[in-house]
């Protein structure tokens, strides 16, 4: 298991502050959704958690300062699924997913039996085992998104940060991915995902962190965070919020002017 603690984290891109004074403790066992409007700083915050961009404040992984950790150590602790990743090399799906094992390999070493098992497990969990011989650059956008998720799962890290994993997926595969992420979290992993679909966030996430203009404006259960007042203030919309047992549906109805 792995925990990420943020204390007063800030990020500037150029001279523009994008993330401002963010503090939170992200713990395993619950699916955490980071939500907010476009440009709120969600993806930037995820990248800062992994040390991929410079930040101020404190970021600690299992109580170790991120700045004190080698890149390989971070990669073995927390797998990362970035958004909109472009594939440049015509690798087979199986070889692409196998790249997820790189954090565990010494330089110039080859995949061993344990790595092969991890790759096979990831292919099946992401539902892409039938694509293993296909060339990844020939896949549809939705197929490619699921293959890249498999690559992240192949790391078998105790933590996973997924940035908009539902992009390009049809509704059925969106459900598959959210159920997989929730199962990973319930199994004891730290799973943090950036989402734009508020209904998916409300249905599947145990905790939501709502960010606006680079700051956290709400942090709690979906019912606590997704209120009509916050949707109006942060997203500038009116919405119908319907609750059917444990399922919450968020239906935007109009711009709030």
Overview of the molecule:
The strands form three sheets. Strands 6-7-8-3-9-10 form a six-stranded mixed β-sheet, with helices on both faces. Strands 2-1-4-5 form a four-stranded antiparallel β-sheet, covered by helices on one side. The longest helix has 16 residues, at 171-186. The chain is built from nine helices and twelve strands. Helices cover 32% and strands 30% of the residues. The chain has one domain (4-255): 3-Layer(aba) Sandwich (Rossmann fold). With 257 residues, it is α/β, with parallel strands linked by helices. The termini are far apart. Strand 4 (56-61) and strand 5 form a beta hairpin. It comes from Sphingomonas populi. Residues 4-238 form the ABC transporter domain. Part of the ABC transporter complex HmuTUV involved in hemin import. Responsible for energy coupling to the transport system. This is ABC transporter ATP-binding protein. It holds the Pfam family ABC_tran.
What would you say about this model in short?
Helix content is 32%, strand content 30%.
Count of helices?
Answer: 9
Largest sheet, spatial ordering of strands: 6-7-8-3-9-10
What overall geometry do the principal axes of the alpha carbons give? globular
Q: What sequence of helices (H) and strands (E) makes up the elements?
A: EEEHEEHEHHHEHEHEEHHEE
Specify the structural class: alpha/beta
Q: Major sheet, described briefly?
A: 6 strands, mixed
Let me know the CATH homologous superfamily. Answer: P-loop containing nucleotide triphosphate hydrolases
Range of strand content = 25-35%
- For the secondary structure, the number of strands is 12
How is the quaternary structure best described?
single chain
| Low-confidence blocks of residues | none
What is the residue-averaged pLDDT? 94
Question: What fraction, in percent, of the residue positions are helical?
Answer: 25-40%
> The CATH topology is what?
Rossmann fold
Q: What is the CATH C-level name?
A: Alpha Beta
State the end-to-end distance: 45 Å
Radius of gyration of CA atoms, rounded to a whole number: 18 Å
Number of domains: 1
CATH 2nd-level architecture? 3-Layer(aba) Sandwich
């Amino acid at each position: 298991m792995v925990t990420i603690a943020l204390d007063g984290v800030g990020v500037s891109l150029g001279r523009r502050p994008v993330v401002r004074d963010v503090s939170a403790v992200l713990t395993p066992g619950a699916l955490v959704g980071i939500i907010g409007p476009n440009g709120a700083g969600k993806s930037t915050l995820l990248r800062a958690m992994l040390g991929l961009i410079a930040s101020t404040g404190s970021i600690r992984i299992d109580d170790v300062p991120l700045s004190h950790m080698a890149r390989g150590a971070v990669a073995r602790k927390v797998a990362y699924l970035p958004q909109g990743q472009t594939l440049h090399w015509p690798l087979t799906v199986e070889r692409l997913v196998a790249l997820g094992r790189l954090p565990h390999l010494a330089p110039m070493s080859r995949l061993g039996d344990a790595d092969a098992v991890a790759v096979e497990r990831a292919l099946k969990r992401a539902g892409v085992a039938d694509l293993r011989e296909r060339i990844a650059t020939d896949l549809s956008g939705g197929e490619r998104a699921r293959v890249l998720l498999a690559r992240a799962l192949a790391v078998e890290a105790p933590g996973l940060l997924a940035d908009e994993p539902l992009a390009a997926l049809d509704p059925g595969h969106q459900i598959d991915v959210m159920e997989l992420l929730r199962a990973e979290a319930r199994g004891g992993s730290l799973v943090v995902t950036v989402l734009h679909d508020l209904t998916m966030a409300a249905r599947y996430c145990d905790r939501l962190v709502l960010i606006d203009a680079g700051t956290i404006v709400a942090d709690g259960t979906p019912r606590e965070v997704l209120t009509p007042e916050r949707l109006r203030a942060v997203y500038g919309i009116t919405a119908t919020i319907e609750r059917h047992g444990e399922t919450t549906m968020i239906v935007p109805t109009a711009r709030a002017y």
